[in-house]
């Protein structure tokens, strides 16, 4: 009798270990649900349920739910921000909690949920819609752009900009942004928090008086000629570096890096099981002007560029993340010698980040109407996970079968 009991336990534990091992190999596969692009589509609960079930059926195991797009209003029950009811003339009033319904339905289906918010945008300059156009409290707190003609322009009045950014260097702006993070984490059972638009809008902002003072505090000295001591514009639109040129980029990167750390600290003070994620473009050398140093501080990549420095390298915020959503929004897929390929972008991110956090390959579905299976497969084969942006593109181009094919191909090779 004893030998049969022993044999049973051996079989039981061996079998369960095998199941656990198999389960642990399944990589995260995210589908992003953008708030603005899907504003009307997800005005009903039925639509949300239908597309979550569709996502599950093709192999996704996690969804990213955007609940605060660039306008500043939100799609959850907030005591801080107003509900988002209008996007580009489309009006939707909900008497139910958008985020909570997503969470309930996703969890019913066994899907995990990442919540995403646009951290520093609060309005749409193209249409003059959003928080900074409706609430006078934000006057003077949006980014000030330093134009090639030497003049300054409030980003709220720059119709070419994708969003009206608040100044990340301001203490009141950072306090406001952190309050949004805390409110969501306290009230909603999410698995991860993804930071979006957690950056400066471009390399020519912010140049306000508040930033001037913050830069002086960072340097520990006065900057008498601002912004000329940073750089001046040439007639052809290029820049002539000033005496604090390299320090300026390190300062801006420090502003963003220190905020990412604050977000992590705030989240973990409430729930240390929630992961912190960050999306940024994979071409790190071209986004220094936005303060986005997603590399490890152990990397010295910036020294290869005229704007780089040891101080800039030290601002790398990869250690504060659980996951870097590597924005390989590129048309070409293969080519380790091709800087414009997904394969190259993933490899570069892995090299610059090391073991500081996980790296997921992410794709822009619109780029892959005919080869989505290859793009999906390469992300899963070469990185720790996959994110597809955005469901609106997947729906409109009917990419479901291709995504399923790519997932199945990658997983049969694991």
Q: What percent strand?
A: 15-25%
Order of helices and strands: HEHEEEHEHEEHEHEEHEHEHEHEHH
Q: Helix count?
A: 12
Shape label: globular
* Percent helix range: 25-40%
Helix/strand class: alpha/beta
Compute the gyration radius: what is it? Answer: 23 Å
Number of strands: 14
Please state how the strands of the largest beta sheet are arranged side by side: 1-2-5-8-11-12-13-14
Residue windows where pLDDT falls under 50 for at least 5 positions: 1-24
Mean pLDDT figure: 94
Euclidean distance between termini CA atoms: 40 Å
> Multimeric state of these chains?
single chain
Largest sheet: 8 strands, parallel, barrel
Short description:
With 414 residues, this protein is α/β, with parallel strands linked by helices. The protein is built from twelve helices and 14 strands. The strands form four sheets. It has an eight-stranded parallel beta barrel, surrounded by five helices. A two-stranded antiparallel sheet has the order 3-4. It has a two-stranded antiparallel sheet with strand order 6-7.
